TrEMBL record:
GO biological process: negative regulation of cell division
Highest taxon of source: Bacteria
Source organism of this protein record: Thermobispora bispora (strain ATCC 19993 / DSM 43833 / CBS 139.67 / JCM 10125 / KCTC 9307 / NBRC 14880 / R51)
Residues covered by the Rv3660c-like CheY-like N-terminal domain: 7-114
Protein name: ATPase involved in chromosome partitioning-like protein
Length: 346
């Protein structure tokens, strides 16, 4: 694969660019003159031109091409912008203000998206509502349907979603390996690091001391999942933290699992008040209880995505380490219908 090209003879600027390339997880080809740049010019996915050499490069008569950026460590003046036009560059970016977006551009150039996955968040309206089971079942159903799926366990106090899958012994990274992550991560690298089962890749928690998910770490994982997957399912805790607050605005839909009972409805209404600060794409998934599910759904004033079937014997199934009862089982049928609805709404 061709690498991004940096053209500059300013060593301090080059050091900055190399540092950002490391943050983006890519390598740079480097040229210090127009002559050195010419063999790479047409083939590099992205060309970054230092302000120190932009004028010389414009005068060299290189053919116009897409994705050329001029980068400077000083305030761009009128001459810099004239050079930008002459060179056919798309923009002039000033460092350090443009560092974050340049890291993203470098990563996109070296690892272009292969998918355009939707994010679906699942939250329990109250403790024990069954949100984790629904998130896991939906992700497994999607992967069995041939959709490349990333399942993210965002609840550090949930005991690990890999247990729900019966895969707690699976080798691979867990959240503690990512909580310090800043910058970009490619999906291929993420998939190689995490437990993967066919089309399903899982980021779960370990059984040690819990930790918060930093905003930057959740952003890096979600971005990788959206570029490389058809569907990203996030199991969120009711107490969101930075990771949840980062995930919710990125979700195409957020499913609130609500038991049809008095405490379930009251707790869900409080949870909704928190969720609405971050997203308006909210849908209820009702569970059978002492109240009429239609009445509970109407009281919450959000659309209903369906009523979960009774899950009798599920706790015993999970305790034995058996797979989730999907396929032709009621839970499998519900997730198949829900998945079809989610995919049609894209």
């Amino acid at each position: 694969m061709q690498q991004p090209l940096a053209i500059t003879h300013d060593q301090e600027l080059l050091d900055d660019l190399l540092r950002m390339a490391v943050a983006a997880g890519v390598e740079l080809d480097v040229a210090r003159s127009a002559a050195q740049a010419r063999p790479y010019w047409n083939h590099a996915p992205l060309v970054i031109v230092g302000g120190d050499i932009a004028g010389d490069l414009a005068a060299a008569g290189l053919p116009h091409r897409d994705r050329v950026l001029i980068v400077t460590r000083e305030t761009a003046d009128v001459d810099t912008w004239r050079t930008c036009v002459a060179l056919g560059a798309q923009a002039v970016w000033e460092l350090p203000e443009a560092e974050r977006i340049l890291v993203e551009e470098l990563g996109e150039a070296a690892d272009p998206p292969t998918r355009a996955g939707d994010v679906v968040c699942v939250v329990g309206g109250k403790g024990g509502a069954g949100a984790t089971v629904l998130a896991a079942a939906l992700a497994v159903t999607a992967s069995r349907a041939g959709l490349r799926t990333l399942l993210i366990d965002a609840d550090p106090l949930g005991g690990g979603i890999d247990v729900v899958l019966g895969q707690e012994e699976a080798t691979g990274a867990r959240w503690p390996d990512f909580v310090g992550r800043e910058g970009r991560v490619g999906f291929a690298a993420l998939q190689d690091a995490l437990p993967t089962f066919g089309e399903l890749t899982v980021l779960s928690w370990h059984r040690g001391e819990p930790a918060e998910i930093p905003r930057q770490a959740m952003r890096a994982v979600l971005d990788a999942g959206r570029r490389g997957c058809d569907l990203v399912v996030v199991d969120l805790p009711r107490h969101l933290g930075e990771g949840g607050e980062e995930a919710l605005p990125r979700a195409a839909r957020t499913l609130l699992v609500v038991p049809a009972e008095v405490r379930g409805a009251l707790a869900a209404a409080q949870t909704l008040a928190v969720l609405r600060r971050h997203t308006s794409e909210l849908y209820a998934v009702l569970r059978q209880g002492s109240l009429d599910p239609d009445v509970v759904g109407a009281s919450l004033d959000i659309p209903c995505a369906g009523v979960l079937p009774e899950l009798s014997g599920l706790t015993e199934t999970l305790d034995r380490g058996d797979p989730l009862p999907l396929g032709r089982a009621p839970l499998g049928g519900f997730c198949t219908t829900l998945l079809r609805t989610l995919m049609e709404a894209r």
